[in-house]
Amino acid sequence: MASEVSFIVGPAVGxxxxxxxxxxxxxxxxxxxxVVATAALWWLDPAVRSEPGRTDPPSMRHWLGAPMVTALxxxxxxxxxxxxxxxxxxxxxxxxxxxxxxxxxxxVWCLASLACGLVYGxxxxxxxxxxxxxxxxxxxxxVAFGGPWWLVALLxxxxxxxxxxxxxxxxEAVGRLAPDGARGVATGLHGSAIMLGAALAQPLTGVxxxxxxPTVALLAAVGICLVxxxxxxxxxxxEIPPARPAGTxxxxxxx
Length: 255
Known about the structure:
Layout: H1 2-20, H2 23-44, H3 66-95, H4 102-122, H5 129-140, H6 149-161, H7 163-177, H8 183-211, H9 214-235
């Protein structure tokens, strides 16, 4: 939820900072805030083991199998779709001369994700990762055919509804599939998967937008996500408990 709030507030605060301060000062301030947050995380050193005590971490070949790779691929696919959605929507609005309305449409998108992420977090029997990933892909399809800014904002609601749940579910799957002694490594791999999805989306979507259209660019990302969702449905069948233990909730996907 904090991640969604940052996506809503961050662009607005960044814009104000750039307008009120020299751009160099604004960028240095963002970098300094990142360093402070990283130092705080290092100082707090949150536990990644469910039981106290140190044990030798298990070999990666014992837990980095098809289910774990599939859960990581789900994170890549989810972020690929999200990044492609942003780029394609901005490109479509720019072509209509409505770029300035993207901030409002983005806020609607994030609020939908925030609300449905909260519902997912408190659900005792949430939908499975493959279902959420497929929902993210299918819910994004209407955005590809957009229109004026207000229509794009409305179409982003079903896309956003599966955003936080899909990312949280991938993080939860990685956490459950990793043994205690390797959970820190697995969490790091999940973070790398998120970065990989964004890194792949930028050039892939950009090339398709320039050479074909924003619609084709977004539909290509949706197709990849559906393929991964189908594979996840096979690879993760029976690997992850369908319900959470009492008193637990979904983890922060960006942790």
